[in-house]
Amino acid sequence: MSRGSTRAGNRASTRAATRAATRATARALKATADKSAGMLADAAALLREALHPLLVRCRTLFATYLAPAGRVVSPLGFVVAGTAGLLWLLGVAFGWQEALLGAFMASLLLLVALGFIIGRSDFRINLELNRTRVAVGDRAVGFMEVANPTGRTSFATLMELSVGAAVATFRVPRLAPGAEHEDLFTIPTRRRAVLTVGPVRSVRQDPFGLLRRQVRFTGSYELFVHPRTTALHGSSAGFIRDLEGMTTRDLSNSDVSFHALRGYVAGDDRRHIHWKSSARTGELMVRQFEETRRSHLAIALSANLGEYGDPATAPDDFELAVSAAASIGLQAVTDQRKLSVLAQTGPVRTDTGRNMLDSLTRLQARTLPRHDVASLVRGTIEAVPGASVVFILTGAGTTARQLREASMHVPFGVRAIAIRAGHGLRAARSDIGELTVLTLGSLDELGLLLRRAAA
Questions:
Q1: Transmembrane stretches, by residue range (predicted)?
Q2: Is 257 helix (H, G, I), strand (E, B) or coil?
């Protein structure tokens, strides 16, 4: 064997040994890392177990003492109290007169603030709302009466009334024994919402804003700001009423809609024999009828903001769709028709008109990328298999293709009407196969569009 072959063999052996040593080192490092990670996890678990009683104790102390104090002491009050404690400590420890003077002034400030909130708040407060259900744009008026039932004159007091996320403030003057003070207030109703009105709290606060004490006197009310609706008159209301008794192409041996005569078959009801035709033809003839379907309106209201076009105007367009659904639903309830309203979030109560409006008021829209109008219609048909007409309420962002896909889930013989709601759109009627598509740009145009659909 030549020297070159020997050197090549040595180099190959060296590389193989190096690779083996590298793999062994990597395995050793991995084992060390796994062991270290396990030790750290065990140490962390032991530390959590050891600190758990301390954490529980800290949470208990916070809930017992600090949380109630936080409702009385403002952030500025905590700063002043902490500064006073620190200055007292420095003054006593190092004999600093300046620190002791600062600590004394801060403590005196806290004592003065404490004098403003100490004392009993004896009032009798009556809170009432003129109506607990109003429509968008209507006036919601409330009344608050504050009386002093004690035998001494009360100080001027600040009263706070929670209205949704806002807080209204009322100043109550000094009240003589047995005196009363009344306040009327108006609640804005610019948008559909469920507002919690109340409770009424008396507020005592020092002029420096260090301490603040609240005493609750009343409960709260729910104020429903219903969607705006429009009355459907004339042929638009008649169109909905005429859905009852709408004939189908299914034949029946007994109903109210006459279809044709046919030969008698054993088992037919003899009351349906047409004797004049039987005498003329020489064989028994019986009446055959078309089945009629009792009106059951199903409203599929899309709560997917992605179907209402421009994100900036989508919330307002959704409100228009809710108003249209509420108007059609109220007309159906007035005419005592069966009604079902469904959205992506679930069914809406429709046993009474008020409950329907309450449920629609609570309905909130959000972006639902996986819940398009087709899936909504499919779910509506599955939930209301006996529907005679389906109203599909959606936005201007829904395309004709999406509406066509949605209409494919409507069974044969069921009338389907889609309403695309969008502020500023031109009122129009079009057809996509058996689906009637109405474009609604204003709630006042709803009656006109339904008359067009009835034509």
A1: 72-94, 100-119
A2: strand
Q: From the centroid of its chain, how far is CA 251?
A: 45
Residue 240 has phi, psi (to 5 degrees) of -70, -40
- What's the CA dihedral at 435, 255, 455, 242 to 10 degrees? -100
Edge to edge, the sheet with strand 415-421 lists 346-348, 338-343, 296-301, 389-395, 415-421, 435-440, 428-432
Q: Taking a C-beta distance cutoff of 8 angstroms, is the pair 309, 422 a contact?
A: yes
pLDDT for the residue numbered 197: 93
108 membership: H or E segment, kind and range = helix 97-117
Q: Match 């590298």 to its residue by tokens.
A: 22
DSSP 109: H
Provide the token pair at 14.
């060296």
273 beta partners: 286
Which residues in the chain come in under a pLDDT of 70? 1-17, 21, 55, 58-70, 234-260, 289-294, 455
User: Which of 77-82's residues contact partners 24+ apart within 8 Å by CB, and which partners?
Assistant: 77/110, 77/113, 77/209, 77/210, 77/211, 80/106, 80/109, 80/110, 80/210, 81/106, 81/110
Q: Rounded CA gap, 144 and 83, in Å?
A: 41
Contact by Cβ (8 Å): 186, 139: yes
Q: Are 106 and 95 in contact (CB under 8 A)?
A: no
What's residue 256's pLDDT? 43
Tokens of 71: 């409702």
Tokens 């009322």 found at: 170
Residue 241: C-alpha distances to residues 80, 148, 250, 323, 348 (Å)? 72, 58, 21, 20, 21
> What are the respective helix, strand and coil percentages of the chain, to the nearest 5?
40, 30, 30
Helices (H) and strands (E) in the chain, counts: 11, 19
- Burial class, 424, CB count within 10 angstroms (exposed 0-12 / middle 13-18 / buried 19+): exposed
Residue 248 confidence (pLDDT): 46
Strands (E), 294-434: 296-301, 338-343, 346-348, 389-395, 415-421, 428-432
